[in-house]
Design a protein that fits this description.
65% of the residues lie in helices and 0% in strands. The protein is built from 13 helices and no strands. Helix 8 (124-135) runs parallel beside helix 10. The longest helix is centred in the middle third of the chain and has 18 residues, at 105-122. The radius of gyration is 18 Å and the shape is globular.
Length: 220
């Protein structure tokens, strides 16, 4: 895996990427497009048999990563199309570990919006109460995941769940909590702009969250 990523690395990019991401973990200097192309080749050449082997491979990549691109590889492997049928509730411990130990937007947001969101769609009776639990967690990144997990739902958004996941973080001064609130509301506003405007006016949300939520709406 590392050899494939090293071959796709662009000289001089590693430190720029590390500074931009504010990451203590070093980068190889592989940008997103060549990284994904290299990983697709590796994943296609090394098929995994069964969900347990797939989960072990994802977590091994994640835990043993020395470069940040290797953690991106773990995230990409977790969503690789050949293993779509493995996206069951058995993946939850894996994703929870990745959210908590990843603890930065470039790793967490993909898991929140694509992996956890997909599980919420498939298993609402289990995932809904779990997201409410995560929304109250002391861990910022679990709360951010709960807020963002419906970002791709559009008209399928469970409005009550969205608001219930946002509200425990309304008083949080952390940038990433406030940004998540605004982003989630902005995505929902694409479907229900009037409802988002009503909610923003009714709630004492931060200026950052408000600006993000109303970014694409006409000035009022």
């Amino acid at each position: 895996m590392r050899i494939a990523l090293q071959d796709a690395a662009e000289p001089g990019k590693a430190e720029t990427m590390r500074a931009y991401m504010k990451s203590p973990m070093p980068f190889l200097g592989v940008q997103a497009v060549p990284r994904r192309a290299a990983l697709r080749r590796v994943f296609a050449e090394h098929r995994l048999e069964g969900a347990p082997e797939w989960r072990r491979a994802v977590l091994t990549l994640w835990r043993e990563a020395e470069y940040r691109e290797e953690r991106y590889a773990a995230v990409d492997l977790s969503g690789y199309h050949l293993y779509r049928e493995f996206q069951t509730l058995y993946t939850l411990p894996m994703y929870e570990e990745m959210v908590v130990s990843g603890a930065w937007w470039d790793l967490v947001d993909e898991i929140a919006t694509h992996r956890i969101g997909a599980l919420l769609t498939a298993y609402p009776d289990t995932m809904r109460p779990l997201m409410l639990q995560w929304a109250h967690d002391h861990d910022l990144w679990k709360r951010r995941t709960a807020i963002l997990c419906q970002n791709r739902f559009k008209s399928r958004t469970d409005t009550a769940l969205l608001y219930a996941c946002i509200e425990p973080s309304l008083s949080d001064n952390d940038f990433f909590a406030r940004k998540a609130i605004g982003w989630a509301l902005r995505e929902y506003a694409k479907t229900s702009p009037g409802e988002v405007l009503r909610y923003v006016k009714a709630k004492g949300i931060s200026g950052l969250s408000r600006r993000e939520a109303l970014k694409n709406l006409p000035a009022t």
